[in-house]
Amino acid sequence: MAAAESLSLRDYGPSPGSHSHDHFQVLVGLDGVLELEVEGRGQRVGRGDGFLVVPGDRHDFESTGGSRCLVLDTRVGLWSLCAPSPRDARQVGSLAQYLAQAVLKRQPLATLHGPGLLLEAWAPQASAASRRRIDWASLQTWAQARLDQPLTVAQLAERAHLSPSQFALRCHEAHGLSVMQWLRSQRLARARQLRALGVPVAEAARRTGYRSPSALTAALRREAH
């Protein structure tokens, strides 16, 4: 997989399948019943049921009457702390129904945050206390030194040693902002500092990644109102 995490909807039928993979796979039943055999152990995934397949486990699957599941393929290591079944099955089932609609409607924010929300609902309560701390001051310094570049969510998440979805969730928790909103606030704050030091607007725009001096001027004007 190229991406660290991917949410999808998958339909299963009576034709049996069998494989293993090098990433975690999270299955939550939406309709019907999926029959699994994982390393020789039987497992049924019906509506609202969840099951975690760990990397390397061979699993056979079929669904005699047909079934549909929300599937998360993920390489995020925090899933290694999780049990095969979710801590709160009801919460995970309700969340999966919502995320299934988000996937169908191509809602980008829901599908971005969905993997992190699934992990939060699935994981033991104790894992929240051991979450990696984000040094926001250090990250801000790192980002402000590169504001002339087209920074991405993935780059910032990598710097914080988190997946993009987990980083986005933590950014919203800490600042009430999306990652790109946080990044825009850093650009604007730095541009404002440069202008206060007498740096010409064109140079300030170049250093902070604005597409033109007029774009920076407009952003500063919006902030003032």
UniProtKB/TrEMBL annotation:
Keywords: DNA-binding, Transcription, Transcription regulation
Annotated protein name in UniProt: AraC family transcriptional regulator
Organism for this UniProt entry: Ramlibacter humi
Domain annotation HTH araC/xylS-type: ranges: 137-225
GO molecular function: DNA-binding transcription factor activity; sequence-specific DNA binding
UniProt keyword Transcription, yes or no: yes
